[in-house]
């Protein structure tokens, strides 16, 4: 039987989804056993592999198809122009800041909602406590003022029942809060980032799943760490990965159907240099604003088409 073809569009997204789900399950069971040092060395390894992938992608600048359309000396200039123009547009639009702001806004909104729920739960508990003390004082006063009729059965105090109900409600609310926060945090981490966009589009273009494979490894270890704290909410984020990256893969498939090979090569080479920026961030070499460079992926095929028209 033939092996599974790594160029099948959507395969990278499926691998990523399974990695998140598997990591979440492992984290829910034994995530606390992984030390910070272990997680750091794994991240360093992934950063080095990302550098290797970046080099392989950047080599597309030497593609014969690209050279045939724009000339032998133009490909490097096209990549340079794409990065510069894309960076200018991205920095003017503050894309990376907006992505981070979006993530922060959503997280702050959820955190505020959770705080309101905690406040409401605390207020309910505070209201119940004085009622319980008042009931106890009334019973004590009645005992002191009147003789106790031993034939009269004791009246059941429902304070304990109310307290138990409040405890159950509080536990359910806390579990719900942990689920929401875990799902939201993991979704933002796994679905908002340059590697998500680059990897999914390349997957759709049929360029292979190498980039999403590295992302899957990153997400696997990250989901272990998050699931050890937030629980099943991180597992639910696997659905978010499937939907978001599946949509981006579909975009890549549509682009691949209409773009000539030379434009795809220019996009791939430009994306390879963006991967260098991601690798530098993983290795803590330099925090390059890769998000601001994302428009370069749009500029590269357009610039290639413009140069080819005059070649």
TrEMBL record:
Q: Where is the composition biased (Low complexity)?
A: 135-158
NAD recorded as keyword: no
Q: Name one Pfam family in it.
A: DUF554
Q: Return the annotated region ranges for Disordered.
A: 135-168
Q: Does the keyword Cell membrane apply?
A: no
What domain of life does the native source organism fall in? Bacteria
Could you tell me where the Acidic residues compositional bias lies?
Answer: 159-168
Give TM segment ranges. Answer: 6-29, 41-60, 72-93, 220-244, 264-283, 290-310
Q: Which UniProt keywords apply?
A: Membrane, Transmembrane, Transmembrane helix
Tell me which PANTHER family the record gives. INNER MEMBRANE PROTEIN, INNER MEMBRANE PROTEIN-RELATED
Query: What name appears for this protein in its UniProt entry?
Result: Membrane protein YdfK
């Amino acid at each position: 039987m033939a092996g599974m073809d790594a160029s099948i569009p959507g395969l990278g997204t499926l691998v990523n989804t399974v990695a998140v789900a598997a990591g979440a399950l492992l984290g829910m069971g034994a995530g606390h056993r992984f030390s910070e040092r272990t997680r750091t060395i794994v991240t360093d390894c992934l950063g080095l592999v990302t550098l290797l992938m970046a080099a392989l992608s950047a080599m597309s600048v030497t593609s014969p198809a690209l050279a045939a359309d724009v000339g032998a000396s133009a490909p490097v200039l096209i990549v340079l122009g794409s990065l510069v123009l894309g960076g200018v547009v991205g920095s003017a639009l503050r894309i990376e800041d907006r992505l981070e702001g979006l993530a922060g806004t959503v997280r702050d909104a959820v955190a505020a909602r959770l705080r309101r729920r905690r406040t409401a739960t605390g207020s309910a508990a505070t209201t119940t406590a004085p009622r319980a003390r008042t009931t106890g004082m009334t019973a004590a006063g009645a005992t002191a003022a009147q003789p106790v009729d031993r034939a009269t059965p004791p009246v059941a105090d429902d304070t304990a029942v109310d307290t138990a109900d409040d405890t159950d409600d509080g536990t359910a609310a806390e579990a719900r809060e942990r689920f929401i926060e875990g799902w939201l945090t993991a979704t933002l981490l796994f679905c908002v980032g340059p590697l998500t966009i680059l990897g999914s589009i390349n997957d759709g273009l049929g360029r292979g799943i190498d980039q999403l494979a590295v992302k899957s490894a990153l997400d696997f270890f990250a989901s272990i760490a998050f699931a050890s704290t937030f629980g099943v909410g991180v597992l639910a984020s696997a659905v978010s990965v499937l939907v978001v990256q599946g949509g981006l893969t579909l975009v890549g498939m549509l682009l691949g159907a209409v773009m000539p090979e030379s434009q795809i090569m220019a996009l791939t080479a430009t994306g390879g240099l963006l991967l260098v920026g991601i690798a530098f961030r993983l290795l803590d070499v330099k925090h390059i604003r890769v998000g601001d460079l994302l428009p370069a992926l749009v500029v590269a095929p357009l610039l290639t088409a413009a140069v080819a028209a005059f070649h």
